[in-house]
């Protein structure tokens, strides 16, 4: 079930892996007017950034469209529709035939589908997963992003080796639609989220689906207890606000302290994830490897392919060995420092001993290349998968779709910032762009303090127990006590008031 949905993550990974390599292919540069002369580097950087970042604009709006669709028609339907939208966008990109305007339109349409899927996938998985392995299952989303990036890197490499002319970039652009086709096919075989069914008052369907994905009979105590938790939480949420319009949900999100804290944490984590600089490398890895001294387009694409393999393998290792044992908080803390050190070394190398054209890469340069791969591994052990796990599990049921949509939109907004700014930073911020690496390094170090002071541990908690962690349950109990207190006096047969004892409930 999780892998079926996570092909929606592969949409994202395939795109960021494809476009970075395509932008360096000689046939693409000639067809779409990207200048190759060194003196026109800034012009090339601006055009490359526009092409790469147009997708993020579509992704930003796609998150909110998918949130509405996922709440109204279900998580499954939203994923299928976003898969079809992505296919349309990829076809337009492949058939642009040198029209830069058509390329922009295709990438924006594909972005609507990619962004929508990025919001629905972690939502769908977290609502289906048992709490004991929820981190690992939700983290598969990041694994599929890394897998898509790796596959796209090798498609680019194979295209330049074995294809000629326009086919070298048309094939990679068309291949972006493959994960979308698989997503649509796989999701048609899956069931709707039981928590969405419960929220829609389809309790019989919710019980049947939950029993199926837990592989237990519907009358099993585990299934009945989970359904009761879902029912209790929905009742508590209705008690707090009641309405279900967008205005009601936003009021519930930002006026209740526990919900507001969860929304702000989600936004903060997604900003931090992008400011590590990971997508700067994902989008522009060939250019970065060239700046570090590697020669030739095919060599740069080969190194980029190895980078993709490292990302996929380390993410898989994290999911198998650490996602539900190391914990969310510790994973974020140690990788903040590790990523910062890797970026800092790269920046210092480019500043102190930059590669010289025509000369061999020195040992310090090879270690800088190793630091790129180390950075990829560190990211996959913390800020890559953990952010998606965290923002999909902490919101309350009524607000989960909206909360994840806001978090995903924030991620795409800052993804856009990074994709748009990085080529210019590499071209202008210091010699060979060393300042870009220093800036990302500083962000990584500062994230350690953000996590240390503001991020609580959620490992092993059920989705319904997140209200306890963030203090919303206490608010509900207080409202119940006040309600009972107002109606807690009555007149007895003797005409005197009878005071009822305050009702106390013991949480299971």
UniProtKB/TrEMBL annotation:
It is found in: Membrane. One of its GO terms (cellular component) is membrane. The chain crosses the membrane at residues 7-29, 49-70, 77-98, 104-125, 137-157, 169-189, 263-285, 305-323, 332-352, 364-390, 402-422, 434-455. This is Major facilitator superfamily (MFS) profile domain-containing protein. GO terms for molecular function: carbohydrate:proton symporter activity. Keywords: Membrane, Transmembrane, Transmembrane helix, Transport. Its main location: membrane. Residues 1-459 form the Major facilitator superfamily (MFS) profile domain. Belongs to the major facilitator superfamily. Sugar transporter (TC 2.A.1.1) family. InterPro entries: MFS_dom, MFS_sugar_transport-like, MFS_Sugar_Transporters, MFS_trans_sf, Sugar/inositol_transpt, Sugar_transporter_CS. Pfam families: Sugar_tr. The keyword Transmembrane applies. It comes from Pseudopithomyces chartarum. The keyword Transmembrane helix applies. It is a multi-pass membrane protein.
